Amino acid sequence: MACAVLFLAACSPPMTSDRDAAIEDTAARDVAAMTDSGVVLDATSAADATATDSGVVDARVADSGVAPCSATNPMACAYRPERLFGAQPVLTQMLSYTDATGAMRTFEVAIRRPMGAPQPWPIVVWSHGGADGIVNAGGVGNEWSRVFNAGGYLFIGIAHAPRSEASRAALCAHVGITVAADCARFKYLHWDRPNDVRRVLDWLDEQSRGPMAGVADVRRLLYAGHSAGAGSVSMVAGASREYLAGMPRTQPDPRPRAFIGFSIEGPMDDGFTDASFAAITRPHLSVTGVGDRTPESDPAQRRRAFELMAPMNKFRFWNTDMASLHATFDHSVGPCEDYQRMRGAPVARCEEFYLWMETTALAFADAYVRERPEAIAWLASDNLRTLSNAAVEWSRR
Length: 397
Known about the structure:
By secondary structure, the chain is α/β, with parallel strands linked by helices. It has 13 helices and 13 strands. It has helices at about 20-35, 45, 60-65, 140-150, 165-175, 180-185, 190-210, 230-235, 300-310, 335-340, 350-370, 375-380, 385, and strands at about 85, 90-100, 105-110, 115, 120-125, 155-160, 215-225, 240-245, 245-250, 260, 285-290, 315-320, 390-395.
């Protein structure tokens, strides 16, 4: 894939598959169209570009007389970071800690570094979805890492490791689940993810006093995840969860400045209730939509999570197109394209979804991690609505 970031011309990791090649071709067409419109220049000049005070249009574009964000020039409505960067080769690291049962838990993280970005880098920590766990961190958050690396962020992808049967039984006993059938249904990663994150944040703190001193800034950190990973995001942000009915537990950590939940789990999802979300007081962005359905979660539940959080610095991205499927918010191309083909609709629509999500995620990160005024202004604007031709409902509270 030449670049998963459809509106950023500067990142160019190598192609890895036929699917990536197809995305490369689409991205190239998008960049070419944007260049023709005068919004994006060539890759070199894009990397050196600075934004206007609105954070929407490159300063030289504004000087050239090209129209600002409008319905007739929607690509000018995309948020653009001050500069754009590529990605360095991926590194991995094994981390361990003693879990609540007294056993040693070990898991892998992928370390994805921006190429040429000024240091110290702000940090994004990412949790994947799914209930079964992942051993190898190499593919965790791969597409989203390219987005955040392009924005100059260090990206840490966590492979939340599975448990053995004996380890599951020990955790059930600790939590208070005494019936074997209930233990078999218990989604143990809901417990493990926030604790794995705590270990990652401790490790980053340790590294910031050693090899990463002056390289990465642990004081400027965002935690994000998809689906069940977004459930962990909510918990680390302060939300409570009932592993046993009527017994809410919390696992917050004060270190992240802000949070993004892609396909956020809402009330009635795996132990979350209406009362769970009020404790989320730090900045949070929910990214979901009408097609974001799984066998266990309804889009309406995901939508409500935003409404139940403490007000101030809360945002909701709600895609009103049914083709915005659950996997779409994990930046996965295939399911959306298959859905479009099935209903005889253009597959290029899926690429538009990624553009809308990418620009919103980077604006939110830059606003609350970097405190960039242009990003704050973008979040407060209606640019996303114009960019998406009102396909995205953008809510703030």
